Amino acid sequence: MNNIPEIKVALTAVSRDCFPVELSQKRRRAVMKFAEEMKMSVVEIETTVENEDDVLIALGEIEASGANTLCIFLGNFGPEGPETLLAQKFGGPVMFAAAAEETGEDLIGGRGDAYCGMLNASYNVGLRNLNPYIPESPVGTAVEVAHMIYDFIEISRVIKGVKGLKIISFGPRPHDFLACNAPIKPLFDLGIEIQENSELDLYASYNDHAGDPRIADVTADMANELGKGNTYPDFLKKLAQYELTLEDWMDNNIGASEHVVFANKCWPAFQTQFGFVPCFVNSRFSTRGIPISCEADIYGALSEYMLTLATLKPSTLLDINNTVPKDMYEEHINSKYHYSNTDVFMGFHCGNTPSCLMKDPEMKYQLIMRRLLEPDSEPNISRGTLEGRIAPNPITMFRLQGTADCNLRSYVAEGEVLDVDPRSFGGIGIIGISEMERFYRHVLIQKRFPHHAGIGFAHKGRILFEALKMLGVSDIAFNHPKNLMYETENPFNTNF
């Protein structure tokens, strides 16, 4: 996959001048030992920060190292002024962690008091209006701090990806899906660029790619990916031409940004003018770490990309679509899984899920679109979907959404795609999430989230939760367990 930032962490120890600096240095080296064993991209900064002059020296060393994230490690109590000044001047993602005491045999000359020092560091972080990553248990042994850094790398990848992102969209967000309309101001607040274009721009560029000599190679690659699911071999040339159109547009318009995703209108005029549906092409871009959301859903594209950054796997965008019939639940789910009938639902979309995430994918036609555009003929312009069962996998369901009043809210829930045939059309899977019915009512409906959910194929709720906090998102919802009520949940039993 490309379109993903590389993260390199600078490990910088700090020391309060009334404590032995050697203690902080020794503990820093111990953390580095485990970081190297875990094969993380971490560079050890030799300057130990005790005062403001050290801050400037350390910043120069960090810049020379090429590190783009910073771990400030309190090997002892630490100097709250200089260490938070270092975080402020660094400018990129920063984490704070501190050293636990190693042994009861050395609690006089070898006691560091970093448990106390983290409190002062936190207070001064607030004075400087900083928002660093502070782990749930920020004081630990060398190996524990190394594992904190591992999480920090994943969190930083999400932060850096978002901060360097441009969202390119084509076409107005459709009237029939007002849920896909949201103000773009919160995107700029996050540091994201957005370039909104007309469908005519895309159509003109597509026509300019007619006869492109690269089409044959892309067509062959598509056929190889589809294998026995290549039901329309002669049709692939159109899709290859479209794929090249998007590739060139991305290359020519990335500008000052580092990463790109797309949010493209995909119906109904798209089919009548381009002569196909773009789902399979969208899925192929997602495989490369470049999600393309349908229906010009800009926040859907952002959510997919954040999932890709967190999981380092392709993601997809699914409708939270329909319930699982009770007879299907009783026959195929009840005895095999721990989920209740209200914990499961079907996630569906026309055909944008990458083939690597599906069982026996096949190119087909968009059934709903065919009903509208060519009900009395063989499928033609409605062809181009990638359909099949979504393969069993752990998943994280996630969305970051701009609200009507230009704020940001989000939800995160972990679950899994069940190994059960949905017996329906499209790219579809049965998904289990604990307490889904309550989550659906008191988060998705109550907080006015749209029908599109980003789906990432690993459990990364913890990483996304921390990344959202660092991005300044304060409204982060999750699926509450039975013993934890939502604010809007009725405490009285139903009468049925």
SSE layout and pairings?
Elements: E1 9-14, H1 21-37, E2 42-44, H2 52-65, E3 69-74, H3 80-90, E4 94-99, H4 114-127, E5 139-140, H5 142-163, E6 165-170, H6 185-189, E7 193-197, H7 199-208, H8 215-226, H9 236-253, E8 259-264, H10 269-274, H11 279-287, E9 292-294, H12 298-311, E10 315-323, H13 326-332, E11 344-349, E12 358-365, H14 367-373, E13 383-390, E14 393-402, E15 408-417, E16 427-432, H15 436-445, E17 452-456, H16 461-470, E18 475-478
Parallel strand pairs: 1-2, 1-3, 3-4, 4-5, 6-7, 6-8, 8-9, 13-16, 15-18
Antiparallel strand pairs: 10-11, 10-17, 11-16, 12-13, 14-15, 14-17, 15-16
Helix pairs in contact: 1-5, 2-3, 3-4, 5-12, 5-16, 7-9, 8-9, 9-11
Features:
Rossmann fold; 2 domains; 22% strand; alpha/beta; 18 strands; 496 residues
